[in-house]
Structure formats: C-alpha cells, structure tokens
Write a structure and sequence with these properties.
Elements lengths: L1 H13 L3 H15 L5 H11 L6 H5 L1 H8 L5 E5 L6 H18 L4 E7 L13 H12 L7 H8 L10 H13 L2 E7 L6 H10 L9 E7 L5 H7 L2 E4 L4 H9 L6 H5 L4 H14 L9 H7 L6 H10 L4 H17 L4 H16 L4 E2 H8 L4 H4 L6 H7 L4 E3 L5 E4 L2 H9 L1 H4 L2 H12 L12 H10 L3 H12 L4 H12 L2 H12 L6 H10 L12 H8 L3 H9 L14 H5 L6 H9 L14 H8 L2 H9 L6 H12 L1
Parallel strand pairs: 1-4, 1-5, 2-3, 3-4
Antiparallel strand pairs: 6-8, 7-8
Helix pairs in contact: 2-7, 2-8, 3-6, 12-14, 17-18, 17-22, 19-21, 24-26, 24-27, 26-28, 30-31, 34-35, 34-36
Length: about 625
C-alpha cells in the first residue's frame, strides 16, 4: 500500500506523464482559439515570398532597436497597398523565431494576419486576434515548464478574452517569457479608440510588460496611440532591389534568356526601366509586356505606360497598371477563363476559403461550352495559363491571386470585368451534381467526408447567395430550375452553407467540437423556399409557380416562402412577386411570427411598407420594433 502512495506522491511532484501533457496542451490550445489557422496562413505567406524581398527591413536600425530594447515596445509600420508589408511580416516572424532559438533570452513570437479590412470598430472585434495570440504563445511553452502545467491544471473550461481568466493566462505568459513579439499584419483603417483598447489589453502600457508589438498597415500612425505607448513609426516603400527581384521571377526559366536570344544586359535595363515606373510598389504586370519591351522593337510598351503615368497621382498609377493587366487578360486567348478564375479566387479570399487546382478545374468542366472548350487537361496546365496572375502554393496546392492590388481593382470593377452569370451557372451546376442528390449527410463525420471528397462544396454553398444579388436571373434560370427540382439537392446545399467553412480537417474538427453545425440547416425547403432564401427575383418565382410551386407551402418550421424572403435586406422584388401570387401576409410560423415581424428585424424598410400595404397587422411587439426601426 505504501508503494502506491509513494508512486502517487512522485506523480504529484513530477506532474502528468509527457504524452498526457502533449494531449492536454492540445486541448488547452483548442479552448483558447478553436479553429485557429494563424500558423497555416503564415506558412502560405512565406511560400509566396520572393527570395529575400524585404531584407532591408531587418537591417533597419529602427526595427533592430524595437526588437532589442525595452524602451520602444511599439512600432507602427505603414505604407501604401502592395509595398511588401505581408512579405516583411513573414520575414520578420522567421527572423525573430530563428533568433529565439539562438538566444538565451526566453522569447515567443505570435502573428495575426487580419482579413476583415475596416471592420474593427470596438475591442470586441479584436477578440479573435487576442485569443489567437494567446494560443500561439502557449504553443511555444516548453512541455517541461511549470507555467504550462499550471495552465493545464487550471479549473477553467473556457478561456475568454473578456473575462478575468484571460488576464490570468496572460500574466502567466509574461512571467515566463522575457519578450513576447506580436506581429500584426494587414490591420487597415481600424477605429483609433478600439485599437488603443486592443493594444492596452496586451498590457503594452505597462513598462514591465514583455510584449513588443509591430503593426504593418496601410493606415498612417495614430499620434495618440504612439504617444500613449511610447511608440515609433516607419514608412515602407519597396526598394529598387526588391522590385527588380520581383520582375525577374518570370525570366528564371525563360528559354530565350538561356539561349542568348535575349541578352542579360538588355533584360536588366528593361527591368530597371519598369521598376522605375512602379512607384515603389509591386504592380501587376503581364509577362509578355515585360518580355516584348526588353527587345528594341518592343520598347514602346514601357514608353507608352511612362507617358500615361507622367501626370498621374499614386492612385491613378496603380489603376493604370491594373487596367493594363486586365486588358492583357481579356485580350488573351484564355481571357474569359482567367477572369472567371480570378473572380472565384477573390470570392474565396473574402469568405476565407482555400481553393486548389482540382476545386477550380472540375466545376469549370461543367460550365458552358465556350468556357469548357478552353480548359486545360490538367491542373498544372491550368496553372500555367494563369501563371502571370495566380500563385500556387506548392506544399498545399492552394491558389491565390499574386497581386492584392489587382484583386482589389477587379473587385471594385465587378460590373465591368466580372463574369457573374458564368460563375453562378457554374455554382448551380456543381451543387446539382449526382453525388449531392442523396441529400444532407446524417452525421458530422459524414459531412466532413463529403467536404473532403468535394473540395469546392463549402465554397460553392457559402458563396451562392452572395453571387445571386448581381446576376441576370434569366441567364441562370435553367441551371436554377434544375438545381431546385430535387429537394435532396436543396438539403445538401443548405447543410453545407450553414456548416463551418471547410479548409482543412484539423481546424474544422476544433470548430465542430465547440458547436456542431452539421445539423442546423433549415429543413423542408421547397423550390420556392429556396428562391425566397436566395432572393431569386420575379422571373424565377413566376416560373416556379407556373410549374406548380405552392406559395403557401410550409417548411419544417411552418414557414412559407414569404417568411423566408422577409429575412433578406434586398429581396423586395422576390417578396413583391410572392405577394402577386397570393402569399398570405398573416401566416404564422411555429414561433408565432408573421413575415412582418421578421422583416422588422432583418428585412428592409421597403419590405415592411409592402407587407403593411398588403394588410399585415402589427401586434404589440411589432409596434415596438417599428418604433425602434423608425428611431434608427
């Protein structure tokens, strides 16, 4: 008996076994920031980096002072779009991590790459960033450290940034690490007060704090923030050396250069000339323009651009290069194909989906004949066609647009360049696939397997409603009617749209462990419910009613299509069409709500007026909601 007691005593002293600590640390990390993808995103940025672009930043005396001193804990690095800030953030993290291994100082590095530009109005909007930072720092604690053992043993089931228990974990990390480097990349145009609160949450105002924060942003520094935290600022501009490295990429394997047809000296002069036009930014450019301008007969290409830029400001110069790239795409043999792929990737970036070549190529084969006929046989061939404007991450095979500047330019000019109708047809045909006609999956595991087998499904389902707002409905009506004709296909789509976004298995599993979303989708939708859900408009509603659709049909929550359409902020045309076909404005769902109650909270003022004009009655709750809406 005494032997057992002795073993238990030593176990208490030594802590849990090594494998147990590894597992417990993983569970702690999942509780801190479930589904966190910071390390994956950082790896992807590192893969995109061109050789040593941004190396000058590490040699800058201001940066070195920030990294080594205790007096300057905050550095605000600012620069225009496409000046290389993300490359610099990746390079800096790698440098600090390597220094950490070679130093006797206990330090840790965390990096947050912000994706929701301009949506940081309060401290709450920084909640995910705070949790991600904590998770990254905890992951760097040695398994032998008492700090990690205390955090694992803490009787806390949920670590939340706004509660006192977060301050406990942050204090533990600060007591262990002598320096905590935090790199914030892509935080553009935040609310000054909210950003101040965010940085204060990291205890940067405390001179004893071990935190060192660097922000890389398009926004110029907030002087109040710099004064409050004793910070410094540094402007970023792409160096001539970096720009030439960037321009040299397409020529690394160029046969004409290797064979001497194009002399290296002529190429060097050409690249130097273009770099001088780039205004210290990494502008998008078509390789053929670069190539031809290196020959005497093609000198006029860069000369023409130079003349256009002579009187232009910074914004106009960027727009000139983007329009030159867009014109090169549309005039090329595969123009429609490339533009379709670019807009798919722009949408993927917005909804945080990662698309690989297979996810793009397979649905494109289901497009109309003119596009499908231009398709390459393999994903490698397709990548080659798009290589001037698309980057393929070798380890993950994820595709992305090379130039953020071009992506933003195209997004702002969707009406001119975007093949919206083509893309919606592709998504509808993809969601109509035979594999999805079996209906929704019966478990979380089965849905995950479906996402893995069909890599575009999560993206297609979560993006369809966004694309429907701008589509010419008549041009997609055949595909829509085919898709909506099978209730099982509708269920499959709705389940995928309401589930967690799927990129890789590990982050999906963590999110699903927090909240299972595989079974939260609305059930029992008819084709008319689907049309209402997507705001498909009058043409589709009229056609579905002609085919026998029931405007009073009910889903599992006793909702008519009118209830569903009332949730939309811009669905007035769809609602008007349903009303014209006799939809009942007084129908109540299983929660006792009519369409008007729903529209007062979720819909538009136009929808509310339309429903009232059609005889919808206001109950006591509706009157209060209407009053609040009028006040707003």
């Amino acid at each position: 008996m005494s032997g057992i007691v002795t073993i238990q005593y030593w176990n208490c002293l030594l802590g849990p076994p090594r494998m147990d600590i590894t597992r417990q640390r993983r569970l702690l990390l999942e509780r801190l920031s479930p589904g966190d993808r910071s390390s994956r995103k950082l790896q992807e940025t590192a893969c995109r980096r061109v050789r040593t672009i941004g190396g000058w930043f590490l040699r800058n005396t201001q940066v070195q002072h920030w990294a080594k001193s205790q007096s300057t804990q905050f550095l605000w690095v600012h620069g225009d779009a496409s000046t290389g800030k993300s490359c610099i953030s990746s390079l800096l993290v790698e440098h600090l991590s390597a220094t950490q291994l070679d130093s006797s100082i206990k330090s840790a590095v965390a990096c947050v790459q912000f994706e929701n530009t301009g949506l940081y109005y309060s401290l709450a909007d920084f909640g995910a960033a705070i949790c991600s930072i904590a998770r990254q720092i905890v992951s760097q604690l040695p398994e032998s450290s008492e700090t990690l053992k205390r955090l694992i043993s803490a009787p806390v089931t949920v670590w939340t940034w706004w509660l006192d228990n977060f301050q406990v974990i942050w204090a533990e990390l600060e007591s262990y690490f002598e320096k905590i480097y935090i790199v914030l990349d892509g935080l553009d145009d935040p609310n000054p007060a909210a950003f101040h609160d965010f940085v204060a949450k990291l205890r940067l105002s405390d001179k004893e704090s071990s935190a060192h924060v660097v922000l890389l942003s398009r926004s110029k520094p907030f002087e109040e923030v710099l004064r409050r935290f004793g910070g410094a600022s540094l402007e970023v501009r792409a160096s001539q050396e970096d720009l030439i490295q960037y321009l040299q990429q397409p020529f690394q394997s160029n046969l004409d250069v290797q064979a001497g047809v194009l002399s290296e000296s002529a190429l060097a002069q050409d690249l130097t000339r273009w770099a001088g036009l780039f205004d210290h930014r990494f502008m998008p450019i078509y390789t053929q323009n670069l190539y031809h301008s290196a020959f005497p007969t093609g000198f006029g290409v860069s000369e023409t651009v130079s003349q256009e830029l002579s009187q232009a400001n910074a914004l106009q110069r960027a727009a000139t290069f983007c329009e030159l790239a867009a014109a090169s795409i549309t005039q090329s043999a595969h123009g429609d194909l490339i533009m379709t792929i670019l807009y798919l990737l722009i949408a993927a970036k917005k909804t945080r989906h990662h698309l690989n070549g297979e996810a793009i190529l397979n649905p494109l084969r289901m497009s109309d004949q003119s596009l499908a006929g231009a398709l390459a046989a393999t994903t490698a061939d397709l990548a080659s066609i798009c290589s001037d404007f698309v980057f393929v991450n070798e380890p993950t095979q994820v595709w992305d647009i090379k130039s953020p500047l071009l992506a933003e330019h195209l997004d702002e000019r969707r009406a001119t360049h975007c093949p919206t109708d083509t893309i919606v047809n592709i998504l509808l045909r993809y969601l109509s696939k035979q594999e999805f006609k079996a209906g929704a999956c019966g478990s979380s595991t089965a849905l995950k397997r479906r996402f893995k087998d069909h890599p575009l499904l999560s993206f297609a389902a979560r993006n369809l409603s966004l694309w429907m707002a701008d589509v010419d409905v008549e041009s997609i009506s055949v595909a829509f009617l085919q898709f909506s004709s099978k209730a099982a296909s509708i269920d499959s789509y709705l389940q995928a749209a309401e589930a967690w976004a799927f990129n890789e298995e590990s982050s999906y599993d963590e999110l699903e462990a927090v909240e299972e979303r595989w079974n939260v989708y609305p059930k029992g939708y008819s084709a008319l419910h689907l049309a209402a859900h997507l705001g498909a408009g009058k043409f589709i509603v009229d056609e579905l009613v002609r085919l026998g659709g029931d405007v009073e049909g009910l889903d599992r929550m006793m909702q008519t299509p009118l209830h569903v359409a009332a949730y939309g902020e811009q669905f007035e045309e769809t609602i008007r069409a349903l009303l014209q076909h006799g939809s009942d404005v007084s129908a109540l769902n299983d929660g006792g709500q009519g369409p008007l109650s729903i529209a007062l909270v979720h819909g538009s003022a136009g929808t509310v007026r339309m429903l009232i004009d059609q005889g919808a009655k206001l109950d006591a709750i509706d009157v209060d909601l209407l009053g609040e809406s009028l006040e707003e």
